[in-house]
Task: structure prediction
Amino acid sequence: MIGLLGFAGLWGLGRWRGWGELWLLAAAGWWSLLVVVHMPVAAENPLMRLVGGNFSAWLVFGLLAAVVLAYRGLLRALRRRQVSDPVQVTAPETFRDAELDRYARHIMLREIGGAGQKRLKAAKVLVVGAGGLGSPALLYLAGSGVGIIGVIDPDVVESTNLQRQVIHTDQRIGMAKVFSAETAMRALNPFIEVQPYNRKLTDQNAEALVADYDLVLDGSDDFDTRYLVNRACVAAGVPLISGALTQWEGQLGLFHPAKGVPCYACVFPVKPAPELVPTCAEAGVAAPLPGIIGSMMAMEAVKHLTGAGETLAGRLMIYDALYAETRVIRVRRQATCAVCGGPLR
Result:
């Protein structure tokens, strides 16, 4: 009993004192002491009765613990290798003084730092749609210092957009959404380059446009465009962050079959019937919801570009705003997928 209490005490002390993994060394020392106390040559050792157990039990306990810890360490290493591979771009050498001041809060973060901010500055990100999801995503990409941001959308700003599409203003009603977005992004950050495409994404232009970027964020509001963006990203080997929403619920994921995770069509192989997924115009949408999901899309973009943390690659996040619930589920590539063809060859 005392032996097990010793392990519990070491673990609790390590958490309280912030030892991190160092408590494992202390636990290993404690286990070694227990094994020595219980060795057959020490059969008359009075400490055996005090700490409890026997030599074989403590030996097996230590070996099982070692196997579990080794397995956990291997999983962590594989996960970091899979999701923390920053996009390979040619980073700029220097920042202007004004940029250093602007991005200071990023540079202070250990997971981003100066190197990560350079990758953001060198990155090219395309956002499909300057509506509810695109609005916050574009603003936060601009604020984060992504060097070149493309935005494609054929629509103009309407008064009904302003309830949720926060990148636009009442004064810009009637203006093409991409130019309205460009105005807001340049006002927020004059150190970025914006490339507006006032047109519809089509089979004729999608692949060539996507291939010119390091990452694509899809905030479109129809399934035909989502499937088109996915096909173009798979063909060009470009990762895709796709978001969607309706009424009170939103979802997003990072799709990149070139890195062994699913494409969008692996998870959603069949377009649902229109009556099952009504548009915002048909069913309504809570105003802050696009801001939440679009901001999450921008966050995933920053993580992917800098290599910080664990992205949603191979996972799908579902957010229910009405009941404040979030779920994340694992998704896998499908061997029968008509777009990416399943497992890597």
